[in-house]
Structure formats: structure tokens, C-alpha cells
């Protein structure tokens, strides 16, 4: 990252400050990502350079909050990338049909405000070929705030988010949410299949024997140094023959491609061959 004139510690100074002052671990994320987010806030605040912006951060609580908000990549949605969810239906049916399997264990990691695991829970109930009573979902995120929103399961249509439209892949959304004007509450039947848990995917290591793991739209932000370890966590959480779903622009690292066979390549659904 090039330094502006008079830009003392530059972006690193801002990052160090953020590390000490707000509950965020910048070390996991790549510098290009951090740089873009910080630059956007600097522009909003008319800061001349990184040092100037750091001084704003030091004196302004609101700006610290705004920066934290900008750094936490919490964008999500119900049925984000609808084609993937369509391709997932046969996978879920097959997992439910497999003889001798006690249930289907799914890991939504990370789950942000819960719309990803709720989509899965709703899809399981919506699809006639899936026995939703066999599906168990563990949904994790590093952010307590995201988890609180996820547990509450209340979403609102705003200028930028149309919840009714997000739920359109379902045959009857009202079976899964209670709607009052622009507010949508996820029903207990949908919630009952999910356990939420705080978890750091870089630090906390793998789960075990998962049949289906979602890790979407986190790897793109993670620094190369941590990416390999995070991917090992995902792999080691799967039982052989289990499935992995990545975000639309994410791929299996070259060193692990032999272990993951694409099932629906464009949708980023892979089978772990073990
Ligand atoms: C862009 S959201 C992705 C949500 C969902 N998977 C999706 O694709 O819509 C990224 C989430 O990753 C969480 N996160 C960031 N670092 C994490 C970590 N080390 N362990 C677990 N979750 C993390 C953030 O709190 C945020 O909620």
C-alpha cells in the first residue's frame, strides 16, 4: 500500500489502533481488504491521510463504531446465490436417503445474522424429498452481535433489503416466517433445527463427522497466512463423502483439489472424497 505524504505509520498505524481499540482481529484479514475499507471511511470523513484518520478515530467514538461496522463483513441474505440452493436440493435429498445414517449434520460456518442456516432449515422443510426431522444444523460465527441477531430471527425489509423477495425460492414462505408489514419473524419450527454457537474458524479447529459444511464468503477476506489452516479445519470437519459449499467466488486451494470433487462446479458444491 503506497503511503500518502506525511503519512507516518500509514495504514498499519490505523490497523494497530483498531486492534487495541475495538473488538476486531485485523490480523486474519488481507491488507488489500482492510485498506479498501479504511480508505472508504477516510473518504467519508475527509481525512487527508492515515495519520489524520487515526486522530479522528482517537477522539470520535462514533467513527470507531462506523469503522468496526465497515470492517465486519456481515453481508448475507436468505437464499443468497439462488442457483446454489437449487443445486443443493438433490444433495440434501441424497443425504437424507442414505441408509444407516442417524441424521444429517450440517455446519453453517460462518452464519452471520442467521439467514444462511435458516435458509437451509426452510429448504429442508420445503422440499418433499427431504425429511427435515433428520436435519440438524450447527451455526457459528465469531461475532456475538451477529449471533444475537441470528438467535432472534427477526428481519426487516428496508430500502436495500427485500426479505419477501429473498424468500421467493420457497413454495410457501408463510409456513416458515410470520410477517407483519415489513417485519419477518422466523417460526419456532424453523429455529428448532439450529443451534447457534460462538466460534472462531481460525482458532477453534475442526468439528467432526459433518455431512455438509457451508463456508461461504469468508475465505475471500482471509489473509493467505490463515487460509490454509482454515481450509484444513473445513476438511477435517467433514466425514468422507460429505459435502462442502463455498461462496460463489471462492475455490478449493490447489493443494487440496484431489480431495474435493466438484458436484456442481458453478455453485461451488464439492464432495470430500476422503
Ligand atoms: C460475509 S458474512 C458470510 C455469511 C454467510 N456465510 C453468507 O455467505 O451469506 C462473513 C461472516 O464471517 C464472520 N467471521 C469473520 N471472521 C471469522 C472467524 N475467524 N471465525 C468465524 N466467523 C468469522 C463475520 O462475523 C461475518 O458474520
Automatic annotation (TrEMBL):
Keyword field: Methyltransferase, Transferase
Sequence ranges assigned to domain CheR-type methyltransferase in this UniProt record: 29-261
BP term (GO), one: methylation
UniProt key word Iron: no
Molecular-function GO terms, alphabetical: methyltransferase activity
Coiled coil, from the record: none
SUPFAM superfamilies in the record: Chemotaxis receptor methyltransferase CheR, N-terminal domain, S-adenosyl-L-methionine-dependent methyltransferases
Keyword Transferase: yes
Pfam families, alphabetized: CheR
Protein name: CheR family methyltransferase
Organism: Halobaculum lipolyticum
Amino acid at each position: 500500500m503506497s503511503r500518502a505524504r506525511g503519512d507516518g505509520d500509514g495504514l498499519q498505524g490505523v490497523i494497530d489502533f483498531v486492534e487495541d481499540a475495538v473488538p476486531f482481529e485485523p490480523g486474519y484479514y488481507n491488507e488489500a481488504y482492510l485498506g479498501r475499507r479504511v480508505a472508504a471511511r477516510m473518504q467519508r470523513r475527509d481525512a487527508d491521510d492515515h495519520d489524520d484518520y487515526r486522530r479522528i478515530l482517537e477522539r470520535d467514538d462514533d467513527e470507531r463504531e462506523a469503522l468496526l461496522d465497515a470492517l465486519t463483513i456481515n453481508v448475507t441474505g436468505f437464499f443468497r446465490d439462488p442457483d446454489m440452493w437449487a443445486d443443493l436440493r438433490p444433495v440434501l435429498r441424497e443425504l437424507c436417503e442414505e441408509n444407516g445414517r442417524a441424521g444429517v449434520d450440517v455446519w453453517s460456518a460462518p452464519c452471520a445474522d442467521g439467514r444462511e442456516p435458516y435458509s437451509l432449515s426452510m429448504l429442508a422443510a420445503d422440499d418433499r424429498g427431504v425429511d427435515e426431522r433428520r436435519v440438524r444444523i450447527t451455526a457459528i460465527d465469531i461475532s456475538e452481535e451477529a449471533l444475537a441477531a441470528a438467535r432472534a430471527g427477526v428481519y426487516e425489509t428496508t430500502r436495500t433489503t427485500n426479505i419477501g423477495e429473498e424468500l421467493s425460492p420457497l413454495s410457501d414462505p408463510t409456513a416458515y416466517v410470520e410477517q407483519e408489514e415489513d417485519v419477518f419473524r422466523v417460526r419456532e419450527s424453523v429455529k428448532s433445527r439450529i443451534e447457534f454457537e460462538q466460534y472462531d474458524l481460525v482458532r477453534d479447529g475442526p468439528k467432526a463427522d459433518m455431512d455438509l459444511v457451508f463456508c461461504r464468503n469468508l475465505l475471500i477476506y482471509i489473509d493467505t497466512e490463515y487460509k490454509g489452516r482454515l481450509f484444513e479445519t473445513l476438511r477435517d470437519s467433514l466425514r468422507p463423502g460429505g459435502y462442502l459449499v463455498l461462496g460463489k467466488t471462492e475455490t478449493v486451494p490447489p493443494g487440496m483439489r484431489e480431495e474435493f470433487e466438484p458436484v456442481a462446479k458453478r455453485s461451488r458444491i464439492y464432495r470430500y472424497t476422503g
